[in-house]
Design goal:
The complex is a heterodimer.
Chain A lengths: L8 E12 L2 E12 L3 E5 L6 H8 L7 E6 L2 E2 L5 H6 L2 E4 L11 H6 L12 H14 L15 H14 L4 E5 L7 H16 L3 E5 L3 H7 L2 E6 L2 E7 L5 H9 L16 E9 L12 E6 L2 E6 L6 H8 L7 E6 L2 E2 L5 H6 L2 E4 L3 H5 L6 H5 L10 E2 L2 E2 L1 H14 L16 H13 L5 E5 L7 H16 L3 E5 L3 H7 L2 E6 L2 E2 L3 E2 L5 H8 L4 H7 L1
Parallel strand pairs in A: 3-8, 3-9, 6-7, 7-8, 13-20, 13-21, 16-19, 19-20
Antiparallel strand pairs in A: 1-2, 1-4, 4-5, 9-10, 11-12, 11-14, 14-15, 17-18, 21-22, 21-23
Chain B lengths: L1 E4 L5 H25 L4 H13 L2 H26 L7 H19 L4 H30 L3 H21 L33 H19 L1 H11 L1 H7 L3 H28 L10 H11 L4 H25 L4 H22 E4 L2
Helix pairs in contact in B: 1-2, 1-13, 2-3, 2-12, 3-7, 3-10, 3-11, 3-12, 4-5, 4-6, 4-10, 4-11, 5-6, 5-10, 7-8, 7-10, 7-12, 8-9, 8-10, 11-12, 12-13
The chains are: A alpha/beta, B mainly alpha.
Chain lengths: 514, 349
C-alpha cells in the first residue's frame, strides 16, 4: 500500500549522465515522478531536456545512471521496453502516417505483423472509450492528412493511452496550438492526472508551466539547478533560474517614424493552392518603426513575406523601394537592396544543414568580396566572418567548422540573425523570428530587432503570436485572406478588437471608404 | 540494433567502411569462385596479377580506367548538385562522334591545333546533349532521370544510323565503323615506348580541376549548396537554375572527354562497341568514390582492375568473367551500406 501522504513513485531517474563528444548533455540528473503528478521540465534550448527524455524513452543510452519505472529498472536503449513499461511520449514533431486513418495510426505497431485481421470494432470501441474518458474528441475514421495540428496531437496522445501508458511525456506540446486548443489540452491533462496518470511536461512557456504543473525541475547546461513545488515560485523566479541570472524582456518604447523605405502600391499576387495571395495591398514600412503583421496562420503572411523577401514578384501593382519603383526583383536583388530576411523556417530555407557555420554565414553574400573574387572563394575570410558572428551574437558552438545541423534552434537563429544584421540593414523582414525558441533566445532576438529599429531601420514583424506583435510593434496591420487592414497605432486596439479583424471582419467597409 | 547519427566522423570512420566494403567483396567473390569449382585464392591471385601483376597488365588497367575516370567525374559532378545524369553513355558517344567526324581528314591541321580543337568540340557536343534535359528540368520540371536515360538509347541509334550511312568507312569491308583517324588526330603516348596514351594524363588533370572547382571556386560552392538544400539556396539568392545548367555543361563535357580519349587515344575509329557501358559504370565509380573527384581516380582504377583482372583470370582457369560484374555489384551495394555506417553508428540494445 502506498503511503497516504507520500504518493507512489512511478518513475525514478538516477544520476543520468550522457555526453556527446566534448559536450555533456546530462550531468548526473536525478528526477522522481509520483503517481498523479505533473512535473514541468524547464530549460533553455540545449539545456538537456530532450536528451534526458530520449534516454528515458530508450532512444539514447545513458553513459551512466539508471531509470526505474514502477520500481523496476528499465533496460537502457530500448524504446519497446519503455513502451511496455507504460511510458508514452508525444514528440514535438508528430510521428503519424498521413495517408492512414486515426484508427490505423493508433493501432499501428500494437499487434503482431502477420496477425490475421484487425479487430476493428474492438479497437474502435476502445479508442472511443479512451477519447471519452480523457476528453479527446477525434473521429477514428478520419484520415490524418485531413486533421488540424491540434487534432493530430490528440491522436498522438491517444496512441500513448491505447498502449496503456501510465506516464506521459509531452515535448513542447503547446508550441503548435492556438490558445483555445491549449485549453483543451490542459483539460485532457487534468483528466489524465485525476485518473492516476503522471505527466512530464516540457515547455518554455512559463504561464503554461504555472498553470498545469505541480512541481518544476529546471535544467541548465545539463544539470538540475532547481527543483520545487510550483506554489513556491513565480514566473519571474523561474525565468531567472532557467537562464542563470536576471532576465528582462526588452521594453519597447514607441519608435519615431521616419520616411517610408519600402511600399506596396496596389500589389496583388496569385493564390497558391489553398494559400491566398495578396489582394491589392497598399502598405508601407517606415524607418524607425516596427510594423507588426497579425493574423491567423495561412492568411497571406507567406505571400507577403515572399514578396518582400524577393521570392515572388507582384502580379500587378508596384513595389517601391526607397522611393523608386522596383522592376527586377529576386532574392539576390532584395539582399543587394539591404533587406535583412529572417525566414520562417530556419531548417528548410534559412540554413543548409550539412554546410558548416562558415558556409552558412556567407550564404547570401558568397558572391561578394571578400568572400569571392573572380570566381574564387576566400575561405579564410568566410571563417573570419563566421567567427565574428559567433562572437558578437553569442552563437554557442565548437567553432566555424561545425556543421550547422548540430546546433540548437536558438543558436541557428542567432547565426541567421548575425548573417543578415552584419551589414546594418535598413529594412528587416522578420518572419516568425522566435518560433520554437526559449525565453533567453526570444528576448535576444527581440532586443536585436528593437535595437535595429532605434538606429532607424524599418522592421516588418510577422507572427502568429498576438502577444509578441502587440509587445513590439509601433504599428499593427491585420491580414486576413490576403487583405490588409488599415494600420493601427500602438495601444489603440485591444487584442479582442484585433481578433475581430483577424476573423475577417471590417475589410469591406474600408474598401468602400477608400 | 539501432542507428545513431555520428556528429563528426573521424578520418578513420570515413575511410574504414570503403576498405571493409572492398574486403567483404573479396570474400564473396572467393565463395563464388569456389562454387565455380576453382581455388578461390588462385582466382583472386589471378585477378590481382591480371590487373596489376605485370607492366602489360598495369598499362591495360590504366587504359581501361581512363574512360571510367571521365564518366565517373561527370556523374560525381552532377550528383553533387543533385542533377541525376544517367546519360553519360550518350554524352560519351557524342564526344566520340565529334572526333570521328573531325579527325578522319575533315580538318587537316597539325596535331597541336587539331587535338585541342577536337577535345573542346567534343566537350561542347556532350554538354549540349545534357543541356537539353537540364533545360527541360529547370524550365518545365521534367525529371532528368527519365530524359537522360532515354537519350542514351536514342543517341546510340543515331550513331548506329550514321555508321551505317554517311560515316561508314568505305574501306571497312561493309562493317559499321567510321574511317580511321589521321595520325595528327591521334593522342600521343604518355611515355614513349609504353602503351598508355595521353587520355590518362588528361583524366588525372581533369580530376584535379574538378576537385579544385568543387572546393575552391564560387561555382563549386553554389553547386554544393544547390545539391544539399535547393530551397535554402534559392532563398539565399543562389541562381539555382543557372547553377544546374552550368553543372550540366560541365558534367556532359567530362563524359564526352571519355569518348574523345577512347577514339583519339585508343581505338582510332568509332564503332558501336566503343563503350561497354562506361557511362553506366561511371555511376558505380562515382558512388564508390563517395562523389569525391580524387576518389573517382582510385575507384576507376579499382573497377578497371577488376574487369581487366577477371578477363585474364577467366582465360587461365575458366571461371566466367561475370565474376567481375558480380564483384562490382557487390562492392556497390556494400559501399552504400558502408556510407550508412560512416554517418551512423550501430547501437546495441
Amino acid at each position: 500500500m502506498p503511503d497516504q501522504t507520500e504518493a507512489q513513485v512511478v518513475l525514478r531517474l538516477d544520476n543520468i549522465t550522457k555526453t556527446f563528444g566534448a559536450l555533456t548533455a546530462n550531468d548526473a540528473v536525478s528526477l522522481t515522478l509520483h503517481k498523479g503528478e505533473v512535473i514541468a521540465l524547464l530549460g533553455e534550448n540545449g539545456a538537456g531536456k530532450t536528451t534526458l527524455m530520449n534516454i528515458l524513452f530508450g532512444q539514447y543510452t545513458a553513459d551512466s545512471g539508471g531509470v526505474e519505472v514502477m520500481g523496476a529498472p528499465l533496460p537502457p536503449g530500448n524504446p519497446r521496453a519503455a513502451l511496455d513499461a507504460g511510458v508514452g511520449m508525444v514528440h514535438q514533431h508528430f510521428t503519424l502516417a498521413e495517408n492512414m486513418t486515426v484508427l490505423e495510426n493508433v493501432t499501428l505497431g500494437t499487434r503482431p505483423l502477420f496477425a490475421p485481421g484487425l479487430n476493428r470494432a474492438a479497437a474502435r470501441a476502445r479508442i472511443l472509450r479512451l477519447a471519452q474518458d480523457f476528453k479527446l474528441s477525434v473521429d477514428p475514421d478520419a484520415r490524418i492528412a485531413a486533421l488540424s495540428v491540434g487534432e493530430r496531437q490528440r491522436v498522438e496522445i491517444l496512441k500513448a493511452l491505447y498502449r496503456d501508458a501510465r506516464i506521459l511525456i509531452l515535448d513542447e506540446p503547446t508550441a503548435v496550438l492556438t490558445p483555445q486548443e491549449t485549453n483543451d489540452l490542459f483539460e485532457t491533462l487534468r483528466t489524465a492526472v485525476a485518473l492516476g496518470l503522471s505527466i512530464i511536461f516540457i515547455s518554455h512557456k512559463l504561464h503554461e508551466v504555472m498553470a498545469i504543473s505541480d512541481r518544476v525541475v529546471i535544467l541548465r547546461h545539463g544539470k538540475v539547478v532547481h527543483e520545487g513545488a510550483i506554489g513556491d515560485t513565480d514566473r519571474h523566479d523561474l525565468a531567472a533560474r532557467m537562464v542563470g541570472g536576471e532576465v528582462s524582456a526588452p521594453k519597447a518604447v514607441p519608435g519615431v517614424a521616419g520616411a517610408p523605405l519600402l511600399a506596396l502600391r496596389g500589389v496583388s499576387t496569385p493564390d497558391r493552392g489553398s494559400a491566398p495571395g495578396l489582394k491589392t495591398l497598399d502598405f508601407s514600412l517606415h524607418a524607425g518603426q516596427i510594423t507588426g503583421l497579425a493574423g491567423v496562420s495561412g492568411n497571406g503572411q507567406s505571400a507577403l513575406a515572399d514578396l518582400v523577401g524577393g521570392m515572388t514578384r507582384p502580379a500587378s501593382g508596384a513595389l517601391v523601394l526607397n522611393g523608386a519603383d522596383v522592376h527586377h526583383w529576386s532574392p539576390r536583388t532584395a539582399v543587394r537592396a539591404g533587406i535583412a530576411r529572417i525566414p520562417e523556417d530556419r531548417h528548410k530555407t534559412g540554413t543548409i544543414a550539412d554546410f558548416d557555420l562558415s558556409e552558412n554565414a556567407i550564404l547570401e553574400s558568397y558572391k561578394d568580396p571578400p568572400f569571392s573574387r573572380h570566381g574564387w572563394m576566400n575561405w579564410r575570410a568566410a571563417r573570419a566572418f563566421a567567427q565574428r558572428i559567433i562572437d558578437s551574437y553569442d552563437v554557442r558552438c565548437p567553432g566555424p567548422g561545425t556543421r550547422i545541423r548540430l546546433l540548437s534552434g536558438g543558436n541557428m537563429q542567432k547565426l541567421i540573425l548575425g548573417r543578415v544584421m552584419e551589414g546594418a540593414p535598413q529594412i528587416i523582414l522578420a518572419n516568425q523570428p522566435v518560433r520554437g525558441l526559449d525565453i533567453g533566445a526570444v528576448n535576444y532576438v527581440h532586443s536585436q530587432l528593437l535595437a535595429a529599429r532605434d538606429r532607424g531601420a524599418a522592421v516588418l514583424l510577422i507572427s502568429e503570436d498576438l502577444d509578441e506583435i502587440m509587445a513590439l510593434s509601433d504599428v499593427i496591420h491585420v491580414i486576413s485572406e490576403g487583405r490588409l487592414s488599415p494600420p493601427f497605432a500602438r495601444g489603440t486596439m485591444s487584442p479582442a478588437q484585433l481578433g475581430v479583424w483577424m476573423a475577417g471582419h471590417g475589410f469591406e467597409e474600408t474598401a468602400h471608404a477608400s | 540494433m539501432r542507428l545513431e547519427p555520428v556528429a563528426n566522423p573521424t578520418a578513420l570512420r570515413t575511410l574504414a567502411p570503403p576498405a571493409l566494403a572492398i574486403a567483404a567483396t573479396v570474400v564473396i567473390a572467393s565463395l563464388l569462385a569456389m562454387l565455380a569449382g576453382a581455388n578461390p585464392f588462385s582466382v583472386l591471385g589471378l585477378i590481382l596479377k591480371g590487373a596489376f601483376g605485370s607492366k602489360f597488365a598495369l598499362l591495360e588497367t590504366l587504359n581501361r580506367a581512363t574512360p571510367l575516370i571521365f564518366t565517373g567525374l561527370a556523374v560525381a559532378v552532377a550528383f553533387r548538385a543533385r542533377l541525376w545524369n544517367i546519360g553519360a553513355e550518350a554524352q560519351l558517344y557524342a564526344g566520340a562522334l565529334v572526333v570521328a567526324i573531325l579527325g578522319a581528314g575533315l580538318l587537316d591541321w597539325p596535331a597541336i591545333l587539331l587535338l585541342p580543337t577536337m577535345a573542346i568540340l567534343a566537350m561542347v557536343a556532350g554538354a549540349i546533349l545534357l543541356l537539353i534535359p537540364a533545360l527541360l528540368k529547370v524550365r518545365l520540371g521534367v525529371d532528368e532521370v527519365v530524359t537522360t536515360l532515354l537519350i542514351n538509347f536514342i543517341f546510340l541509334l543515331f550513331v548506329s544510323m550514321l555508321l551505317e550511312g554517311p560515316l561508314k568507312d568505305p574501306m571497312g569491308m561493309g562493317w559499321p565503323k567510321s574511317a580511321r583517324l589521321i595520325d595528327e588526330a591521334r593522342l600521343p603516348r604518355l611515355i614513349e615506348g609504353l602503351r598508355l596514351h595521353w587520355g590518362f594524363g588528361l583524366a588525372l588533370i581533369s580530376a584535379v580541376i574538378v576537385w579544385v572547382i568543387g572546393t575552391r571556386t564560387t561555382l563549386g560552392y553554389e553547386m554544393r549548396a544547390v545539391g544539399l538544400n535547393r530551397n535554402a539556396a534559392e532563398f539565399a539568392g543562389i541562381p539555382v537554375g543557372r547553377v544546374l545548367i552550368k553543372t550540366a555543361l560541365l558534367s556532359g563535357g567530362l563524359a564526352a572527354l571519355a569518348g574523345f580519349s577512347e577514339v583519339a587515344g585508343l581505338k582510332g575509329n568509332l564503332t558501336l562497341d566503343l563503350s561497354p557501358g562506361f557511362g553506366y559504370t561511371g555511376i558505380i565509380v562515382a558512388m564508390l568514390a563517395l562523389l569525391n573527384p580524387l576518389g573517382v581516380v582510385a575507384a576507376a582504377l579499382f573497377v578497371a582492375g577488376i574487369f581487366v583482372g577477371a578477363d585474364s583470370m577467366s582465360r587461365a582457369v575458366g571461371v566466367p568473367t561475370y565474376l567481375a560484374d558480380i564483384m562490382l555489384a557487390t562492392a556497390l551495394l556494400l559501399m552504400v551500406v558502408a556510407i550508412l555506417l560512416t554517418r551512423f553508428r550501430v547501437v546495441r540494445e
